[in-house]
Amino acid sequence: MSDDNRLSLETRLAQACHYVDAVTGGISPPLQFSSTYARNEDYEFVGRHSYSRSGNPSWEVLERVCADLDNGHEALCFASWPLSRSAQTRSSTSQEGLPLRL
């Protein structure tokens, strides 16, 4: 939990966990619409992402902000209700400790 929890919800959302784009210095997280990512001459991925459904820079910021707002350590966000429900039921035999927020 950080001292940022004393700030208003609006401020915490606007600050997006103090996001700063390493390339541009921008403080608003960009939306990444790429579905696949570049590879080098050895056909290895250039960055840490391979396919947007398994990882996307925009979702990483969203999940970090959601975890912060819920005073948690991490959060998972899903594009649809069926995906979130499936992940929830497969991740644990009990629902304890797996809040599902809509």
Overall description:
The chain has 102 residues and is mainly alpha-helical. The chain has one domain (3-91). The chain is built from three helices and no strands. The chain has helices spanning 9-15, 57-69, 81-91. The longest helix is centred in the middle third of the chain and has 13 residues, at 57-69. It is flat. The two termini are 22 Å apart.
Gyration radius over CA: 16 Å
**H/E topology pattern:** HHH
Number of helices: 3
Distance between the termini: 22 Å
Rounded average pLDDT: 79
Number of self-contained structural domains: 1
Main beta sheet: strand number and arrangement? none
SS-based structural class? mainly alpha
Name the overall outline: flat
Fraction in beta strands: under 5%
Q: What is the number of strand segments?
A: 0
Low-confidence runs: none
* Helix fraction by DSSP (H/I, runs of at least 4): 25-40%
Oligomer: single chain
Compact summary:
With 102 residues, the protein is mainly α.
Features:
102 residues, mainly alpha
Question: What is the topology?
Answer:
Blueprint: H1 9-15, H2 57-69, H3 81-91
